């Protein structure tokens, strides 16, 4: 859906004004994360804890390639950070 919207607006998926925060409270989150990564989505926020399969090396790779960020300990600070997302490049 995000890919179709980006194509219709003439921009990339990462240019859409989307905020994605994935919580590991359900196992479905793994499928969601892998789908987003396969689409090349960047700037995903992950937490409150990392899943067991994300080793320090895997985390470093995801941070470098996909700008993956971790949720902090204070939810209110995280919400402020998410609300201050950069402006979209979509027309």
The gist of it:
The chain has 91 residues and is mainly α. The chain is 43% helix and 9% strand. It has a 3-stranded parallel sheet with strand order 1-2-3, covered by helices on one side.
Describe the structure.
- The protein is mainly alpha-helical and 91 residues long.
- It contains four helices and three strands, in the order H-E-H-E-H-E-H.
- Strand 1 (21-23), helix 2 and strand 2 form a beta-alpha-beta unit.
- The radius of gyration is 14 Å and the shape is globular.
Total strand segments: 3
Beta-strand proportion: 5-15%
The helix fraction, in percent, is 40-55%
Q: Average pLDDT, to the nearest integer?
A: 79
Q: What distance lies between the first and last C-alpha atoms, to the nearest angstrom?
A: 18 Å
Q: Low-confidence spans: pLDDT under 50, at least 5 residues?
A: none
Helix-and-strand structural type: mainly alpha
Shape category: globular
Order of adjacent strands in the largest pleated sheet: 1-2-3
Largest sheet data: 3 strands, parallel
Helix-strand topology string: HEHEHEH
Radius of gyration: 14 Å
Number of helices: 4
Annotation keywords:
3-stranded parallel sheet; 3 strands; mainly alpha
List the helices and strands and how they pair.
Elements: H1 2-9, E1 21-23, H2 28-38, E2 45-47, H3 56-66, E3 69-70, H4 75-83
Parallel strand pairs: 1-2, 2-3
């Amino acid at each position: 859906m995000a890919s179709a919207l980006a194509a219709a607006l003439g921009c990339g998926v990462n240019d859409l004004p989307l905020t994605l925060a994935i919580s590991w409270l359900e196992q479905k989150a793994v499928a969601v994360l892998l789908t987003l990564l396969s689409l090349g989505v960047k700037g995903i926020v992950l937490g409150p804890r990392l899943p067991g399969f994300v080793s320090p090396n895997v985390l470093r790779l995801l941070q470098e390639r996909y700008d993956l960020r971790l949720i902090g300990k204070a939810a209110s600070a995280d919400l402020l950070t998410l609300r201050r997302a950069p402006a979209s490049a979509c027309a």
